[in-house]
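fold-stage: in
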Amino acid sequence: MLRDVSFSLSPGEALGVVGESGAGKTTLLLLVLGLLEPAEGAVRLDGLPWSGVPERDRRPRRARMQAVFQDPHASLPPHRTGWEILAEPLEIQGRGTPASRREAAAQMAARVKFPEATLSQLPAAWSGGLAQRLCLARALMLEPALLVLDEPFSALDPTLASHLRALLLDLKAEGLTLLMASHDRRSVAGLCDCTLALHRDAGSGQDGARRGVPA
């Protein structure tokens, strides 16, 4: 349960949500994504109501908000190749032709340093790091306004984590808004403009209020 949490983000800003395991970081991200509904309060996207809105009304706006979850393999369809996974968001939105979608997939794979030859494989053949990079590539295919990340560096070695951090900084400079949850404050340093610290209420076992501070 989250209490007394309030924040806003403008285009090109990055907020890091930090706290120990069980503090409510993932719950907060799910509320923002509209995968959970708040019992009180509200979430707004582009100044318009997002929480409490029927999914049929949210669906046309979902391309504006994309996510990369903590467990990359659980987030990927196991029986689809990398090519198919990257093309799917464009297919759903009715964008482009099969040829243009394949080219867009190749370009995005290169941007996140996912080997193009590996796109013909199924997710079970990929390491956690490869799977996480493919998840990021899929999230970026629709050029979202907000990218929500849950422990994005957890499956990456230091070299790939550094590349991902540099890529996110470039995207942020281009106007992409970032909301990133991590148990490690150091992982958000240099990337996020400020942090939102979640603390467990020792007396009630509930997730309590936080403070916004520079990252």
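fold-stage: in (second)
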Amino acid sequence: MKKKIMLTCLIGALAGHFISSVITMTISLFAGDGQFYPVVPELITACGSEINAVWIQFVCSCLYGAAWAGASFFWKVESWSLLRQTVTHFLVCTTATFPVAYFMYWMPHSIGGILSYYALFLAIYWGIWTVEYGRIKREIGRMNERLAEKNVE
């Protein structure tokens, strides 16, 4: 099981880096000036150089992706209630996400920026959770129907 968790975290780290790269390319595209912005200017200032900022963002993005991937194992703990799984997953993911978003300057460093971050994070998390819950509920319903059909035969 440990090996599977480590492999999942490694894949998550790669996914975290990929997502971070797509975000920076998208931001650069929407800047509209033909330049590539691998990190936000505030991070460059904080790190002293662009290459330092890129490396720090790379490491943070990998850790971020690994944490989210590793947190997916909470959904497999069958002895836990859905509430416990959700709360634990949410706490681990927000604990991993907030410091990265804050230190990478992906959000304003103000009370309003923090509140906006959490509002957006909660909205996205709730939306994804709701869609997944509905999908799984429908899947269970279909399995129950198939079982009922087999019991009739």
